Amino acid sequence: MSYGNGGYGSGFALIVVLFILLVIVGTSYFNY
C-alpha cells in the first residue's frame, strides 16, 4: 500500500472507487 505513495496509488484507488460505484449504479439500474 505504501509503495504508491507518490500519487499513483491514490489515483489508482480513485479510479477503482469510481469503477465500483459505476458497477453498483449500473446493477441497481438494471435490476429496476
From TrEMBL:
Family annotation (InterPro entries): YjcZ-like (IPR010070)
Transmembrane region(s): 12-30
UniProt keyword annotations, A-Z: Membrane, Transmembrane, Transmembrane helix
Source organism superkingdom: Bacteria
Keyword Transmembrane helix: yes
Keyword Cell inner membrane: no
Membrane topology according to the record: Single-pass membrane protein
A cellular component annotation (GO) from this entry: membrane
Cellular localization per UniProt: Membrane
UniProt record similarity statement: Belongs to the SscA family.
Cross-referenced NCBIfam families: tiny_TM_bacill
Protein name per Swiss-Prot or TrEMBL: YjcZ family sporulation protein
